């Protein structure tokens, strides 16, 4: 039972992160000739391609990807309850849970992009196509903090501040929602 719950939650969360990454990459105008960018596009295209023909984009935001990510997060909680044997519970709260889960997944995605960018800066030192992609993704977030907190002695603290803000938001979610925060 726990294995099925773990598998369901992991598959949904990873695919939603791919969808959010696709939205994020389009929003910041990522180079779509990058091999990683093409991989994300190929993994999400079978579902988003036909859905994108029905739903037009809202400026730089791909509404088809956002809608499908929201739908996946909305059905995740009732699906997990069904797997646990509690039955299928359909309520208006599921839409709220979907929105909260979507924001939580976006926070996880930003966190991992920041961590991977920091690790890659030590390993490849800007020589990899992945470095440029991570720079393009994280730079809009970091630049706003760099305006307030300049680098000190050649050390840039802005990624660490972004991560600390994400931790703060995570703890706020735990305080407000309690056990539900961990399930979502």
TrEMBL record:
Matching InterPro entries: CCB3/YggT
Transmembrane spans: 6-25, 63-83, 95-120, 154-174
Listed GO CC annotations: membrane
Top-level taxonomic group: Bacteria
Name of one Pfam family that matches: CCB3_YggT
Keywords: Membrane, Transmembrane, Transmembrane helix
Family in the record: Belongs to the YggT family.
Annotated protein name in UniProt: Putative integral membrane protein
Naturally occurring in which organism (per UniProt): Candidatus Regiella insecticola 5.15
